[in-house]
Structures are given as structure tokens and as C-alpha cells.
Amino acid sequence: MMDEYLVTGGAGFIGSNIAEHLVKNGKRVRILDNFLTGKRGNVPAGVELIEGDLRNLADCRRACVGVQYVLHLGALPSVPRSVDDPLVSHEINVTGTLNVLVAARDAKCRRVVFSSSSSVYGDTPTLPKQEGLMPSPLSPYAAHKLTGEHYCRIFWQLYGLETVALRYFNVFGPRQDPQSQYAAVIPRFITAILRDEPPTVFGDGTQSRDFTHVQNVIEANLAACVAPQDAVGEAFNVAGGDRISLLDLIATINRILGKTIEPKFAPRRAGDVLHSQADIAKARRLLRWEPRVTFPQGIERTVAWYRQQI
């Protein structure tokens, strides 16, 4: 039987990049998306599309039939959005994840790879963040992702459904939407500087992030599908293992574009963490995964992509 992959949220930024990679490598791919935040233009040719909702168990069941690997990227992303609307975020991120796990269990899927987030760590001062740290979520979104991790572990322990959770650190790359009020910082900064407008920094700009190019996330998902049994039921950091401040990020984008646009500053946002950096030793050891695209390589590629969109 040929491996078949289900990518929930496959019309979104990360999901569509993973689906496209799988299709290019000859895999059979099914996408489940409700297009609440995903875009139809992101759906790669050659996939089977189910337009459905994670909150609907019947849709999740239909999507899981005949699938070997479930890559569960479907979510309502963004910390600020979850602060603004915790109820809808909970329904999609928690109930939706539970529906996917139930459907995957009943369809006898081989493994579920769950997209979690570095936000589960909160603002603990320890750097770099190791998976053994006590989680301390600061936002509903972070709590939802931690709950999803617990559900994954429980479904492995109780039902024998193989699960692996991946904690992404600030993923960036092509197709990330700069328009939303909840947009991630890199697409917002790049598009502002391309338009000669000052990018908005919430806080003083000294806060730092472990920015991770989407190609590294694609490879981590594929590694998690086939990782040995000692990886099952575990959570792993997926990151570059380094960090850069927002002020240095702006300087880097300016340098690539040959510009000198200064940022404007706004008050720090509720739920934002100050510093984020991952220890990726566990993923190296158990997933046999290595981030191959460095931050300088990734930001050059990403700036080039946004330049082409204008």
C-alpha cells in the first residue's frame, strides 16, 4: 500500500509548504481545510482536497480514511487572536485536535504528527528551552497547544495511536500572510520595508526569537513520521537553535534590500514572551533531524520571495 498523508490545515502557510513538498516527492496527499485562514491559491496541484472543519468529527473521520500519516497543522494560529477570542480558538485548537486524534485512532492511521508551539514554555528565563522544562503558557493559544500535546501522549498510552509533537519556534518562509492584523513579524517587517514604511515593533525591540525556516519544519515533520519507537509520545523542539533580536532582524532585512528604514515602537502586547531559543539536541538524537537551512540563508530566500510578490 502506498503511503498516504493527510495534512490538516494544508491551505495554510506551513501546511501548504509540506503538502507541496510531499507531492513533488511522489506522495499521495489529502488536505483538510475550512479556508478560515488558509488560501485556495496555496493548495498545490495533485492533492485531494476535503473542504471541512476540524470542529466537525465527521469531516475528520472522512479525511482520515486510508491514511498512514496525519500531519496535524490545522489550527487558529496567533497568540493575539487567542487573547481576543479564546472560545473560537479553543474549539478549533483543542476540540479540533481531539477530533483528529479520535478519527485517526478509529481509522487505524499509523502515526499522528502534531504541530505544537514554543509558546508552551511561556516566559521562563531559562535559555535555551529544553523539552523537560515545566511549561508555563501565557496565552490561550499556548494553553491549547500544551493541551494538544497531552492529548497526543494520552492517545499513545491509552489507545496505542502513535503520536509525535513538534514545538515550532517562530517559523517563517514563503506564503506567510503579511496582511492579517495577527501576522507574524518577519512577513510584516519585510513587506513594510519593501514599501519604505517603518515596521512596527511591539516593545523595545531587544526581545529575541529563534526564527526557523519552513524547510526545516517540513523535514522535521517527515522525520517524525518515521522516527523510531523511542520518539513516540514525546515532544520535540523544532528550531534553528539560535536567536536574533527584532532590532537586528530589521537591520538584516534593511541590509538585504539596501535600505535604512527605522522602526516605530508600540507598547508590548499581552501574552508575548521576551526571549525564545531552543535546545534541539533531543530532536537531533531521537528524530535524526538537523536544521539544514540557516537563518541567514532562510531570510535571504524569504525576502526574495516577497520581492517577487510585489
Give a concise summary.
With 310 residues, this protein is of the alpha/beta class. The protein has helices spanning 13-24, 57-64, 79-84, 86-106, 140-159, 185-194, 214-226, 246-257, 281-287, 295-309; strands spanning 4-8, 28-33, 48-51, 69-72, 111-117, 162-168, 171-172, 200-202, 208-209, 212-213, 235-238, 244-245, 264-266.
* pLDDT averaged residue by residue: 96
Strand tally is 13
- CATH structural architecture of the domain at 4-171 and 213-239 and 278-292: 3-Layer(aba) Sandwich
Order of helices and strands: EHEEHEHHEHEEHEEEHEEHEHH
Largest sheet: 7 strands, parallel
Under CATH, the topology of the domain at 4-171 and 213-239 and 278-292 can be stated as Rossmann fold
**The named CATH superfamily of the domain at 4-171 and 213-239 and 278-292:** NAD(P)-binding Rossmann-like Domain
Give, in spatial order, the strands making up the sheet with the most strands. 3-2-1-4-5-6-11
Treating each run of at least 4 consecutive H or I residues as one helix, how many helices? 10
| Top CATH class of the domain at 4-171 and 213-239 and 278-292 | Alpha Beta
Structural class: alpha/beta
